[in-house]
Amino acid sequence: MSEQKKLQQENFEILNNDHRKKIVRQDRFPIEAGTCFLQFSGEIFEITNLSSFGLAFNVPAFKTTFVEKIKGEMLESCTLAVKGFNFHETSIRIVRLEKNPISALGDWTAGCEVLDSYLIWENFQAVQKSMRIIGNMNDYFTVLNEIPKPFSSAIIEFKNVLEQFKNQLDLLEKQIPTDNTKANADFRDMVAQVISSHFSKLMPEFYGKIPTLLAKLTEIDKEKCHKFAQQQLGAYIYGAPFANRAFYKPRGYAGDFEMMNQLYRDNIAGASLFDQTMHRYLIDEPAGEAVKNRGTYLLEKIRSTVLNAKSKNIKIVSIASGPALEVQLFLSELASNSDKKIEFHFIDQDEEALKHAQRAILSIERFKKTGHSFNFHNLAIKNIIATGVPIADCDLIYSAGLFDYFTDPVATAAAQKIFQATKPGGCAIIGNFSKDNPTAPLMELFLEWHLIYRSSENLQRIFSPVCKNIKIESEPLKINLFAVLNN
Amino acid sequence: MKTVIDSPSVLLNEIRDVEVVEEIRSILKITANWMAMPLFLLFWGADLIYAPQWKWEFLGIRLLILPVCLGVGYLSRKLTTAKELRLLAVAYSFCLANGINMMIFLIGDPGTPYYAGLFLVLIGCGSFIPYRKRDYILTVLGIYGPYFSIVFKLAFDQADPTQALKAITTNSFFIGSSIAMCFLIRFFHENLRMKEIGARKLLNEEVKNREEIIRQKTDEGVALASLSRQFSPQVVESIRTGKIKFEDGVTKTQICAVFIDIVNSTDRIVRLEKENVEKVLTHFLDDTIKIMLKYDLTIDKFLGDGVLAFCNAPLKRNDFAQRVLRATIEIREKIKADQDFYEKLWLKSFEIRAGVASGSVNVGFYGSKKYYQTYTAIGPVVNLASRLCSAAEPNQIVTDWDVAENIKEEFTTRSIGKKTLKGFDQDMIHVFEVLDVSKKTELMGSSECPSCGGLLSLETNDKGQFVFMCRSCCTVVDSSTNTLAPEKKPSAA
């Protein structure tokens, strides 16, 4: 038996040295398409992968003849470039030319060995990343050129101001006492209060100009301006938990129950002192104050409904109840031996909000033992508009923070359904942000929080088909209006 | 009253009878030419072994088969009905069997195995020939009647018939089983054939039905295609799905008609280049038709430079007058918006005038069914709309008191006095100009889309706001077009 046969195993063939293919066999780094090019003899080819000792480049079908001719020859002064930047010169030899099986255009691939100065992979990466940065900056300048100069100047100016504040607060943060948690918290709280009160004078001056700057732009240009402003100032604003939640909308919409909780808790929150300051500023903004005030308003309405109700059995429904803080406050102050039995119904499409409200309310009830009943309904507004409120003959139905998301026809339809569920003598209260909300530009530009603002006349108009006896009330700041529909 | 011919089972039998004729002919041809003659002559070999003393007599009997077979072959071509051919087959089997019976008689032994030849006759004729019951019985009697007569006579002629009777009895079992087997074979075969014929018949009917359906659908399609020139896609769809039934005749219906005319068109058409006139008129008519179909108006006719349309037929609409006016106002606005285009080609301001009238008319397909038919309205209302149009100033939409009174909540109108219109000389018509849609109208509308009448659904826009959007045309309903009408309060739970 010959040597070869002895060594031969099943399905294994020993190649003769003569038949051994001359292949560059080093590990290669793949190159992103359109990034790196090889230039020689007046031709340019796209490099597909490279290593220190070899590279492969793409050969279009019509250039294969040319490459075939020079295959095996030493090619001097070959330049490697990344996006027009020549970063290496060397000599190569094309050792392989074969058809690319996955190319739709019939391209070929040429494999080369590097003969002269070897490629340094890290240099290539450095050049590639630098060119990427340049590319990003070019994109930035392109976007900047598309933004109207007054707007971009205002944004950049404001960004500088916030940057200065941030730098100084970051420095201050390092000086905060750390050995005492309470002292630390108090310090932060005080700084946040002082700086945020300054913000409340500074910021409105800035974002008060925004509507004017955007007034004559098309929708597409407004969209670009919004994106630009968010990119520039996002780092300074979205660190505040309130802004972060409003912008990123983890529950799918802004103004979710956790945001309401943040308003009602009235504490600072955030990772850094600057973020905490920004958070304090946002929750103390007029819109935030108005939301806190509406809790007080609704509490008053619940009190008067219970007081004035002729029947001993009262039904109160809260639509888009959220954390239902007004009911929590009502229960907290209610005497446990009240002779009236109240049936509370909470309707919300957010199950988490309902669970939160349930936990809070039932924990109060466990303590107060009022004997009232609490019912939680996980229903979408679509269901209410389609089939109506599931509870009839209510003494009071209220909804604050929902109708701001309804266009006029939807608002009328929803109000109709809500009003139908009140009993004679009962009333429906519908809250809506007024057109006088000074925080609206900030909410829309930076927080992508688009509400539908209505005046008293607007509310009268859209609810007049539903009810003849309408009264428009408001909380003390007159930023939140309430349409009271009396049955 | 149902006739016999209508009965499905009779029809199947008739089909079967036609097949039976060919079947019997081919079987007789094979059995007579290819089986009986050769076999009969071949079995003379057996005669030489079993009955050598009768060999010449048997040969004579066997040779008698030849004219029988030839005669059967001839007659099977001549006879035309299944009944006649069955009887021929019965006679043929009788002849064949009795050749064998003669041999049995000559042999004189009741237990002779020659009776086995009768099995061949029974199988050949009884199981292949598509007999009816009566014919089968006749065949069996023809084959075995003479046989039993002969063997019983032979048995009783013997001194001790016991043995012979035993043999006859034994043979009878075989004979009986064979008769039963052949009967069952025929029975199942015939059932199968009838089922096959039934299935074939059903298939033929199905194919005919489908051809009929295809023909109907093609006609429907052609009709709908021609309808789509006059009606909006919603109306065409309603006709197609049967929601609106098109009677062949003409019906009396309340409609609102509009006549739109281009101001000074005759003068312009004469002065301008043909290509420019064509471009202008095409653009105008394209926009006009599109807007009219959007509001579910029926396009009645084009009169060169004018259009006549109406609403409330064939599709009923509660707000048909409002739709006509909205469409007309929108057409006027569209022309104003495209004024640059028009002026370039028309070389003058392009203006229209419109007349709107409502009332009762006869509506339906008029014309020749063979050559040309169109869905049109005929009545004084149409003429009134045309006269009102003539009385209108450029860019004016005029109507009469009936319409003005009907639409006063939704549209702003002003009286332009009483006029005498040609054809309506008896009365002075109080004419009103329709100015625009009233701003007060946040209409107490319906849950239908104001654009296409499609169903509204609650959706959210890209700002997270809830809107009503039309499922058909994706129009977003905002505060200037529609709100839901107040509903009745439900009773307390």
Describe what you observe in this structure.
The complex is a heterodimer of chains A (487) and B (493). Chain A is α+β, with helices and mostly antiparallel strands and 487 residues long. Chain A has helices at 3-7, 64-70, 121-146, 149-173, 181-207, 210-214, 219-237, 241-248, 257-265, 273-284, 286-308, 325-333, 351-368, 381-387, 408-420, 440-447, 456-463, and strands at 29-30, 36-40, 43-50, 54-59, 74-82, 85-99, 108-114, 313-319, 341-348, 373-378, 394-399, 422-433, 470-474, 480-486. A 7-stranded mixed beta sheet of chain A has the order 10-9-8-11-12-14-13, with helices on both faces. A 6-stranded antiparallel beta barrel of chain A has the order 2-3-4-7-6-5. In chain A, a hairpin with a 2-residue loop joins β5 and β6 (85-99). In chain A, α5 packs across α10, α11 packs across α12 (325-333) and α14 crosses α15 (408-420). The longest helix of chain A is centred in the middle third of the chain and has 27 residues, at 181-207. Mean pLDDT of chain A is 87; it is low at 18-25. Chain B has 493 residues and is α+β, with helices and mostly antiparallel strands. Chain B has 15 helices and 13 strands. Chain B has helices at 8-42, 44-50, 55-63, 65-78, 82-107, 116-127, 133-157, 162-227, 233-240, 265-271, 274-294, 320-337, 339-346, 380-391, 401-407, and strands spanning 251-262, 298-302, 306-311, 352-368, 372-378, 397-399, 411-420, 428-437, 444-445, 456-460, 466-470, 476-477, 483-484. In chain B, strands 1, 2, 3, 4, 5, 6, 7 and 8 form an 8-stranded mixed beta sheet that branches. A 3-stranded antiparallel beta sheet of chain B has the order 10-11-12, with no helix packed on it. In chain B, a hairpin with a 5-residue loop joins β10 and β11. The longest helix of chain B has 66 residues, at 162-227. Classes of the chains: A alpha+beta (487), B alpha+beta (493). The A-B interface holds A 249, 253-254, 381-382, 385-386, 388, 392-393, 405-410, 412-413, 416, 420, 423, 448, 450, 452, 461-462, 465-466 and B 442, 444, 458, 463-468, 476-479, 482-487, 489-490, 492-493.
